[in-house]
Amino acid sequence: MRIARFSHQDAIKYGIVDGSELVVLAGDPMFAGFDTTGERVPLADVALLAPVIPRSKVVCVGKNYHDHAAEMGGEAPAAPLLFLKPNTAVIGPGDAIVRPPQSQRTDFEGELAVVIGRIAKNVPTEKALDYVFGYTIANDVTARDLQYADGQWARAKGFDTFCPLGPAIETEFDIDAAQVTTRLNGEVKQQAPASDMIHSVSDIIAYASAAFTLLPGDVILTGTPAGVGPFEAGDAVEVEITGLGILRNTARNA
């Protein structure tokens, strides 16, 4: 089931994607279930929004593909390398990524994102997927020069607009069949099977939930393949994941 969050006639709603239409839901399906209103809206008539706005946090995993760890100048960590983005970094499909004046280099990082559907604390690996509501696409935008200058990642990855999500949440997703592809102005820059992740979704949820409670609506970014690179104002960045669609954003300067 593919679930979208959208704006239509000055109202924000949720809907199930059914071909070229949205079956409008009575509320946020994460909390209100999948009751429908009986209304159908053409996809062409709506503006898609970020499919979830995390109530609490975006948990990210660094260096979770061997080739990316190597291109960043180091070995892959033995355990998931966690950092956080604020929920104010989240934007939706089609929204502009704003390059901040503090940075001279902003990079794209296409990633698979996991949406948590239940309160998760000290979750065992073998039960971790029971806490997943669904999957979507993310771009872990990074001010690379600030990442190096600061010696830690909070500011470099936490600017407003630095966490595009979308276009929808898919509740049934086959990671083993998925390919992660990032294009800059139509040119492929990143491409790898999602199954190449070093630490699996289950491992990440178990590891993260042992440190802090994961809440419904929290999002986990699972790491990026090799090929990260800079983009400029006016560029278009597309992240495509098999079975999840395409997340497209353009960039502008602040």
Structure description:
With 254 residues, the chain is mainly β. It folds into two domains: 2-48, SH3 type barrels, CATH 2.30.30; 58-253, Fumarylacetoacetate hydrolase, domain 2. The chain contains five helices and 20 strands. Strands 1, 2, 3, 4, 5, 6, 7, 8, 11, 12, 14 and 17 form a twelve-stranded mixed beta sheet that branches. Strands 9-20-19-15-16 form a five-stranded mixed beta sheet, with no helix packed on it. Strand 1 and strand 2 (11-18) form a beta hairpin. The longest helix has 9 residues, at 201-209.
Key terms for this structure?
254 residues; Fumarylacetoacetate hydrolase, domain 2; globular; 5-stranded mixed β-sheet; 2 domains; metal-binding; Rv2993c-like_N; mainly beta; Fumarylacetoacetate hydrolase family protein; SH3 type barrels; 12% helix; 12-stranded mixed β-sheet
Put simply, the count of helices is 5
Question: What share of the residues lie within helices?
Answer: 10-25%
Mean pLDDT: 97
Order of helices and strands: EEEHEEEHEEEEEEEHHEEEHEEEE
Q: Over all CA atoms, what is the radius of gyration?
A: 17 Å
